[in-house]
Write a structure and sequence with these properties.
Length: about 375
């Protein structure tokens, strides 16, 4: 695009340089015409002198010369007009060719990403649902592995209005289940977000560690401790995440919203070491994973589990294997177990471990 812009500038400079001499000639002709109009008056100043006949002859010769000059000027003007038309045609041709070159370059630049997207989509399998608008495009796929099952949601964000994270009932300390949040916001879909901590004295449920909603820190910034991470979406609609010891480190990424939990599963396409506790407590469980692909689209994995005791669901290493096969770049484990919830068109898609939806502190919502 930058090359096309410079080409356009060069064409504008070319047009100015091409027309400038013609403008100068027109000005000169106009001044000569003014001078010619004044000349007859000055030749008449003698007012009937004895040499009137001679003056008339001189005046006639002067008129003939002026007429001849006018004819030449007229021809020159026609030549200038022709040259200007030729220059305009050349300019229009160059503009058209530049536009065609831009369109071609744009198509060519998107082709590798389109090929990559088709490869990823093929690995996800048969699509069972989609939600599409000028804000986003979401695709729903079933996951059926030997030891677990669930859903994958692939999302292309096109607008900052396509996705947001909300607090339970929009208040710190409050909670509601994901279906309630979806209905309250009239969202197209919803997925549970970050972890939470309960204040048993007040009965309130607070989001865990660093939490950002609408660009604002809810309760302040919390430096990373133990295995916690922050994950969210920035102003460029890209997934951002990691461990941050200072707020300015996170601010540089321009987060719009995000939550915290543990552990990080993938970074730059490489599996990350999983803390021992999260390998066994529980070993298997319902899981919610957020990740992204090389071309910037998002992936959510929602894995079902029938109980909270580690007997069903998926292990985190199993999901790392799936993420690697799907060519996911970065991936983060969100709150799971009874918190894992996928709402699609006002319908809860996954089986809930304890039979009823859990009230949560944060939710990811998606809008048509």
């Amino acid at each position: 695009m930058r090359t096309i812009w410079h080409t356009s500038q060069s064409m504008h400079r070319f047009m100015l340089l091409a027309i400038a001499p013609f403008i100068g000639i027109f000005l000169a002709l106009w001044m000569m015409n003014e001078e010619w109009q004044l000349s007859p008056a000055s030749a008449d100043e003698s007012g009937g002198s004895p040499v009137a006949g001679q003056a008339e002859t001189v005046h006639q010769e002067r008129t003939d010369e002026l007429l001849k000059d006018l004819e030449q000027s007229e021809q020159l003007a026609l030549n200038i007009q022709s040259a200007i038309q030729t220059s305009i045609q050349q300019y229009e041709t160059m503009t058209r060719l530049a536009g065609e070159a831009y369109q071609s370059a744009s198509v060519q630049s998107k082709r590798p990403l389109a090929i990559y997207d088709r490869r990823v989509t093929a690995k996800l399998g048969k699509r069972i649902g989609s939600i599409s608008s000028d804000k986003l495009h979401m695709e729903l796929y079933p996951i059926q592995e030997k030891t677990y099952k669930g859903y994958a949601v692939k999302i292309e964000l096109k607008s900052r209005e396509a996705m947001k994270m909300v607090l339970g009932k929009d208040r710190m300390g409050s909670s509601e289940n994901t279906l309630q949040a979806v209905k309250r916001y009239r969202a197209a879909a919803g997925i549970n977000a970050g972890g939470f901590a309960d204040d048993h004295r007040s009965g309130k449920r607070y989001p865990l560690a660093t939490t950002i909603v609408d660009g604002q820190y809810m309760g302040g910034f919390y430096p990373t401790f133990k295995d916690l991470f922050f994950v969210g979406i920035n102003e460029n609609l890209r997934l951002i995440g990691g461990k941050f010891s200072r707020q300015d480190q996170l601010d540089q990424l321009k987060p719009m919203f995000g939550a915290s939990f543990v552990p990080i599963l993938m970074l730059d396409g490489h599996k990350q070491s999983i803390p021992k506790k999260w390998l066994t407590s529980p070993k298997r469980a319902a899981r919610t994973i957020i990740g992204d692909f090389k071309h910037g689209q998002l992936l959510f994995l929602i894995i079902e589990g029938t109980d909270d005791f580690g007997r069903t669901g998926a292990t985190l290493p199993e999901l790392q294997g799936l993420l690697s096969r799907l060519e996911v770049m970065d991936a983060y484990n969100l709150d799971g177990g009874g918190s894992t919830t996928l709402v699609w068109n006002n319908r809860v898609m996954n089986r809930i471990p304890d039979g009823q939806l859990r009230p949560l502190a944060t939710h990811f919502l998606f809008f048509r």
